[in-house]
Amino acid sequence: MIWTIIGIILLFWLIGFAIDIAGGLIHLLLVVALVVFIVNMIRGR
Q: In the chain, how many domains are there?
């Protein structure tokens, strides 16, 4: 589940670089996804 969300956000992030639309929001979502991923790794899930 988390890998699917990370993959989708990474895809939107790359598309944002390609067409430069809503780049700030996509970068924010990517940072949030990374924080959630790191917290899950630390907790051992």
A: 1
